[in-house]
């Protein structure tokens, strides 16, 4: 089964899929082994990997290179974070064609102006497009896709921009009418009250997507009681977990004057070899190199 079709089938089967952010094939392999239903090709995580702020500084080519590498090393469906679609509706048409060709099963497009600023930064610029203009982007994306199972997910940042629930609902309904397969609703509140309230008020015909980064108490059991959320994206936990582990290990090495203590608390090199398929490569070398 093609990945896009399998993602839709998984949502129908379980009613809620869990999508883990990845910024490299290595992190994607770990997410697959952990049991996630899919991967979030995260712009935030890729920006962090380059040591850059998430402010539309990473190019589509850089993001596609990451996605292509991930798709080559995992079987999981990939939901691509394409921010604002790299421009207007014409840019979106080009982006959808490229992302579908590269191996994505879905894209998320947000209704901010380009260039964007990451949603959760304090006092960040959070300007939104006119509703009609963003509807055009969604319609362009739907027209551009070649696989009808490829998901076009519209993300409204109305709550992030402090425009209130009524505006968020108005925008979400408009985007669903334009053809979006799902609506991603986001909040910067530390509690999930805005998300739960939006979900209860939502009467649209398409399911919702959430990204519970700022409000971690909204777990799967609680989400399922809402009834209309079908996808949870863990948007920056991969890079944050990696940063946590590296900071701790690097500081200990400096403090200890060597690796004599740290080496006992990190995975052995053989585990990295396993993830890299080193043994399969050695076997192929022994068989074919003469």
What is the strand content? 5-15%
Query: Could you say which overall geometry the principal axes of the C-alpha atoms support?
Result: globular
Spatial arrangement of strands, main beta sheet: 1-2-3-4-5-6-7-8
What oligomeric arrangement do these chains adopt?
Answer: single chain
Q: Which class of secondary structure composition applies to the elements?
A: alpha/beta
Which whole number gives the mean pLDDT? 96
Would you report the number of β strands? 8
Describe the largest sheet.
8 strands, parallel, barrel
User: Rg from C-alpha positions?
Assistant: 20 Å
Give the uncertain stretches in residue-range form. Answer: none
The N- to C-terminal Cα distance equals: 38 Å
**Helix fraction bin:** 40-55%
Q: What is the H/E order?
A: HEHEHHEHEHEHEHEHEHHH
Alpha plus pi helix count: 12
Topology:
Layout: H1 3-14, E1 17-22, H2 25-34, E2 38-41, H3 43-49, H4 60-71, E3 78-81, H5 89-102, E4 106-110, H6 131-144, E5 151-156, H7 165-177, E6 182-185, H8 193-201, E7 208-210, H9 220-224, E8 229-234, H10 237-256, H11 269-276, H12 278-288
Parallel strand pairs: 1-2, 1-8, 2-3, 3-4, 4-5, 5-6, 6-7, 7-8
